[in-house]
Amino acid sequence: MRTPLSIEAALAGADAISQVRTSAAGVHWLASIADQNGRVTICRHDGLETVELTPEANVRSRVMEYGGGAYDVADDLVTYCDDVTRRVVLLENGSHRPLTAAQERFRWGDLHLVPERRLLLAVREDHAASPEARTEIVALHLDGDNSDGGRVLLTGADFYAGPRVHDDQVAWFEWQHPHMSWDSSAVMVCSLDDPSDARRVAGGTDVSAQHPMWSVDGALAWASDETGFWNWYLRDEVGTTSWNVDHDCDIPTWVLNTAPAAMVGSDLLATIEIVNGTGVLALWRPGTGEVTHPLPGTAFIESIAAQGDDILVIATWPTRPATLVRITPSGEVTAIVDSDSINGALAPTSRWTDGPAGPVQSWFHTHPDSDTPPLLVMTHGGPTSAHDSAYDQQIHFWVSRGFAVLDVNYSGSTGFGRAYRDRLKGQWGILDVADVVAAVRDITDAGLADPERVAITGGSAGGYTTLQALVTTDVFAAGISSYGIGDLRALVADTHKAESRYPDSLIGPWPEARQTYLDRSPVTQLENLTTPMLILQGLEDKVVPPNQASDLADAVRAAGKPVALITFDGEGHGFRGMAARREALESKLSFLQQVFGMEHSADVPKLAIENLQS
I want to staple 209 with a disulfide (CB 3.0 to 4.6 A). Which of 131, 202, 221, 389 is the partner? Predict the structure, then answer.
């Protein structure tokens, strides 16, 4: 028996946890406080109690726009980026002291403490540089005012990430335009005292090497996809050992957080292993080659840290929120941050479909009481991203309201190896759409959903795939676009440094491939848009101009099909305010219930839909 999840419950964000770190002072993590508009703070558990260390701060980095690496701990030190003051702050002996001045020129992230030298290494962006921000690795002195923004250690590459120090050696990884880090990146090492001796350890052209880590005795580990999958390598004084498996054991560098991996002592590497779209904890012993999996049932592994011989893991689960657990060498698992299963939450099933370029993985969510329900197809953003089976309140909402949900990891998604994500090169707007169509037909042909009531929805890059599917196929009976990209030229004109060359590989170099950008833009194919549509658009959106939403609505009106256009004052590329989020969710539910002839939910206002015949 389904119990409908209320709008309030669907929107009430749970406090999220991420990025576990350890030091002599205890176990640390980031907590996002839902009822404080997602403010992020540092929590510490010292074995007896949990305390909040940064009650006045919002711990967030803005490097590469997506941020990451916003704090670090070592010995009794804690350092963090405070988004309230835009400073880097040191917490020492109970006192918070800024290490940088309040200003707008510099941004810092990927923080790494080197306490024995009283230094903090960071990736820094200099936004006074032209024509784009300059990225460098700098050293901030823990006992200085760092009025220069930090002493520059490494410069010249377009992007830097992951500085990590052992003795007098610093390792990092870097990449250059026009590549993204998952296309071509290199792990490098140099002397901290003489950075001019930098040498490449791994990676380079058409190989993604990333996330270097040092063991306690100075062995260097890193992930590389030279085999076609992100596998781990360990180099010591004897040579290089590798764990080669046909699964990705690392994740792409969207943000500058530490990898979901950690060295434990001198002969154990704890990491994620992504199998069939699911992330499991894997323990690899380079000395023997033994691999074990001591934490079954997870959906994904968010982060890992070591404390002595113990392993700390933040894991997500299919039917409950994330947890933080400690795993001892004997295999005993104890929770530091625990969670209960959500009433009515059901684990999705992983399905594989034959797509035009190869197998395509999807997550299918449905309720056992459902009999050929309407199907809501979700297209993730990125597009080189992925969705896993972790509990998602929004998906639970739709299933509880009588829908089946299909979450498609179309070609280009990460977690399935290099060949899978390389499929989308030059094919964005074509292959992603074809994969989604194939996945839908797999579900409807199996009788698991009603082929006459299939809707597609997505936001941003996922909104682009949604719009392309609506103007190039006849599979969908309804569409919902949330700030969807209708004009690909906007990606060239209005984007940030980290993604400024991203379309080069997905579509083609600009301006040489101008015609391709035009041909694959939904705004140039609006005459084909004949599907009922709900269009949600922020009026302050700098990526997708609001006039694109108006043009979409006009095209549906011209076709005589049902349409509703809702715009939000003060909202940009993504809806953050609770009022906007509530109206968006209520409108989506009302729209689909009316278009699909379902009983209208009494707790949701009835959306006014043009051209809808009762």
Answer: 202
Residue 34 main-chain phi, psi, to 5 deg: -60, -45
Rounded CA gap, 427 and 439, in Å? 18
The pLDDT score that the predictor gives to residue 250 is: 98
Query: Model pTM?
Result: 0.94
Residues present in the chain in total: 614
Which of 333, 341, 337, 284 has the alpha carbon at shortest distance from 314? 337
Q: What angle do CA 376, 378, 384 make, to 5 degrees?
A: 165
Distance between CA 569 and CA 565 in Å, rounded? 13
Q: What is the DSSP letter of 359?
A: E
Q: Note whether 38 and 574 are within 8 A (CB).
A: no
Phi, psi dihedral angles at 498 (to 5 degrees): -60, -30
Model confidence at 225, pLDDT cuts 50, 70, 90, reads very high
Q: Binning pLDDT at 50, 70 and 90, where does residue 11 land?
A: confident
User: Please, what is the average pLDDT of the chain?
Assistant: 95
Burial code of 584-605, b = ≥16 C-beta within 10 A, e = fewer? bbbbbbbbbbbbbebeebeebe
Report which of 461, 460, 441, 466 is spatially closest to residue 451, judged by C-alpha positions: 441
260 Cβ contact list (under 8 Å, min separation 6): 250, 251, 271, 272, 279, 301, 302, 303, 304
> Residue 295 pLDDT more than 70?
yes
3-state secondary structure 171-194: EEEEECCCCCCCCCEEEEEEECCC
Which of 245, 283, 280, 287 minimizes the C-alpha distance to 266? Answer: 287
pLDDT on residue 203: 98
The string of pLDDT tens digits covering residues 545-565 is: 888 889 889 988 998 999 999
User: Alpha-carbon distance 137 to 558, whole Å?
Assistant: 54
CB 241 within 8 A of CB 225: no
